[in-house]
Every structure is written in structure tokens, then in C-alpha cells.
Amino acid sequence: MSESTTSKEKILKKVRSALIHKSNQEIGDVDNDSEIFASSDEPLEIQFAQNFSALNGKFVFCENETEFIESFDFIIKDNNWKNIFCLEPQIKELLKKGNINFSDIESNFLNTDIGLTLCECLIARTGSVMITSKQASGRRLPVYANFHMVIAYASQLVNNVKDGLKLIREKYNGQLPSMISTISGPSRTADIEKTLVQGAHGPKEIFVFLIDDTNNSQ
After folding, report:
1. Which among 66, 69, 109 is positioned nearest to 86, based on CA atoms?
2. Contact at 8 Å (CB) between 179 and 133?
3. Cβ(142)–Cβ(208) under 8 Å?
4. Does 16 map to a domain?
5. What tens digit of pLDDT does each residue of 54-74 get?
6. Shortest CA distance to 119 belongs to which of 158, 174, 65?
7. How many folded domains does the chain comprise?
8. Does a structural domain hold residue 23?
9. How far is CA 60 from the centre of its chain?
10. Which is the most buried residue in 19, 63, 136, 218, by most CB within 10 A?
């Protein structure tokens, strides 16, 4: 018998013995509330911006909704982007204020280049955007357009995924949406000849416009 087989048998015997002769030691209550990761002294918006940017996301801070309109208008004109699609009533009102052309007609969906959506919350620790199927933009728009533009508010910042799920439970009175997902930067793959390709399974770029709603200036 080889040395490796002997070692394997020894381990298996110990496992069998442990299963037969169970320990009498009581296991204490599991602590599900304490934080696993060390907390940061940085404000949530700074944490999110750093972690989101590290994932190749594009972060734009706006002091108010007026500044969002100006920033968004500048970006689309600077890049000569067309075919903007939006289904969120709140964002559509902002675009109308800025005289920015967009479509919300289903027949134009397949020609979409820019998809504008809201989100449920922003996860600061991971730099992720949490979305659900309950949103007006649904399941398709966040993954279909070449460029995904997320409009979020400072009041939507949470520390971690657990906090985000708690927020969603409270928002929908415990009736969780059929789809809850987090977006952590543009999709990437190196499956083909180990060459990293960005946007292979979704948008090529993701922008987050974070609007400060902690003050009343608009």
C-alpha cells in the first residue's frame, strides 16, 4: 500500500470516528449581525466612488438635479451619442427639463445605445449598483444598451449588500422582487484566447451619476 493511500485511510478513519462519536460540546448562537469586514472612516459616497472606479465604472458626482442635466448633456454631446432610451418617469421629467431627446417607445428599444435607469441602492463597500425587476426599466434595459447610465441619489447609499436587501424588503413590504441583481462595473471576460474583453455580456461602459439630495438646492 502506498504512502498516499495510507494517509488517505488515516484521514477517512478520523472522519468516520468523528461522525460516530459526536462531540458533546454545545455550539453557541451564530452571530449574524456583527460586521464581517472592518469598517471604513470614509463617507459612503467616497467609498462607493473609489470602489466603483476601481471596477472601471465611470462616476460623476452632481450637487443637484440641474447639475446632472448639464453633466449628462455634456457627455452625450462630447461623445456624439444618440438613441437614448428611458422608461423611468422621474428621469424622463429631468430629460424634458434639459431638452434632451430620448425615446420610451418599445419599438425603438432594439436601436438603443444609451440606457438610463434608476437603481434600488448603491453598495459602498463593493462599489456595486443594486437593481431589481420591480423598477420601471425592468430586466432588459440595464444589460442591453451599449452604455448604461444609472441615476442615483446620496440617500440611496448603503454600506453593504445586507443593508441593501433590508432596504428592498422594507420598500416592498417583504414581497421581494423576482429578480435582484448587483452590477459591479462593465461585464468582462477572458474566455477567448485569454484576452480580456470588456462589455462582452452587457454594456461596454457603466456610468453612475450620484445626485446629492441631502440638501434642498436644485
Report:
1. 109
2. yes
3. no
4. no
5. 999 999 999 999 999 999 999
6. 158
7. 1
8. no
9. 15
10. 136
